Amino acid sequence: MEYFLQQLINGITLGSIYGLIAIGYTMVYGIIGMINFAHGDIFMVGSFIALALILMLGVAASAPMAILLVALLGVLALSMALTAVWGWAVERLAYRPLRGSFRLAPLITAIGMSLALQNFVQIAQGARNKPLEPLISGGFSFPANPAPGQFSVQLSYMQIGIVVTTVALMVGFSLLISRTALGRAQRACEQDRKMASLLGVDVDKTISVTFVTGAALAAVAGMFFLLYYGVIDFFIGFVAGVKAFTAAVLGGIGSLPGAMLGGLLIGLIEAFWSGYFSSDYKDVAAFSILVIVLIFMPSGLLGRPEIEKV
Amino acid sequence: MSAPLLAVDGVETFYGKIQALRGVEMEVREGEIVSLIGANGAGKSTLMMTICGAPQARNGRIILEGRDISRMPTHQIMRLGVAQSPEGRRIFPRMTVLENLMMGAAVTDGAHFEDDLARMFTLFPVLERRQGQRGGTLSGGEQQMLAISRALMSRPRLLLLDEPSLGLAPLVVRQIFKVIKELNESQGLTVFLVEQNAFHALRLAHRGYVMVNGVITMTGAGKELLAREEVRAAYLEGGAH
Q1: How far apart are CA A27 and CA A12, in angstroms?
Q2: Mind listing the domains of chain A with CATH numbers?
Q3: Are the beta carbons of A200 and B75 separated by less than 8 Å?
């Protein structure tokens, strides 16, 4: 039971990170119908920006807890903003000029952008792993004083921080999409871009906003990844990106709650598979579940079937 | 005579290499209802979309209140007091009726939103009952009413209506045309109407144009066009409907 709880906690933490990245895939797919293959690398850039800011500001674990928290929140906000600029630039440079071109064109430039970002970071930052000392350590364990041989469940402050921030961001983002004029314009562009422009919506700007918010959320995931695992390199965007993309497809690509649910599920599958079977095959397990779900539900768990088109 | 609200001057529009409009000349004056009739594929909807800049005219000028808008992006044109209820209605299917109407008011500052909403619900009471329902679940007639209301929510000076009668029951068509007439008479709303249903469209209009293969071939007062032999033969075959 304790062991199960432990995997559950690990899975939810991992799922939060995947979910945050998956939102960017699903929103971009929803609005312009393309898979932004560079999105995983935007996540990677986000984690490097966070690392650079932490080192530049000299944020260290020895600082008092309150100062450390404020500093980390500041780093989070700043890396969201800076990563958003990258997301905006990728769209502006590689996708917008090709709008109206044939469908595969932006897909190809997306792969190009992905490689360009990876190589850029590899050259600029070096290919070696970048470690970071654990900034937030400690947590709860149940039971606090386990009997010899008894398993004790660890719930770290870091995990609590990741899950709480993710839930808050997802709630905020869902409200933004469902309640505000910006969110309505976003959904209008998603459903009928031409009609949206006939109502005075600046479609290009709305698409930019989508990339910017997706990148900002990926930056949060990037910083969590850095703090949680304590080591990053220029290639982390590939695997995390593929997983998050899988999460988006599993949940139903184009669906916002689907991306969140898909991320959570992929995280849980990985954690439980590694915990009970073998961590060597955790990716195989995640992708197998994806294949099985797609066979029976081709549009994903929460995706809408195409027949609803009017 | 004062300058027209909208003047289309020698407009040519292409889809790739195919020319859809071949030097269209027409105008709409303030307070008028102007109808454009023509067969399927004559270029009526293309003209309406060209006025909105989607696609843009390759040659010629489109003047709105003395200002050339032919090179402006669509969303900017729609902020100048032009609104369109387009061909096929294009209701946002996964937004509620209320959200569709909010989208119509997207270009306004929102100060008149509640008043305008109440006005739409008076014009088309069915929309009030359906306001929480998704647009995609409405019937064709309700969608048409929603499309017109959505266009009106921006308080346009020029309303462009593309085939509001298409696929609707005669009773609904009559209701919609009645509303257009009332809006024109009571509020001086200027309307440019594209229709295949020539009888209704010309009877309603102050002036009409006939389009054949991307060119305006006839123009005159609505009732006058309606009386012409060639119009009756070409567009009213089978009698009034």
Answers
A1: 22
A2: 2-123+130-136+154-296 (1.10.3470)
A3: yes
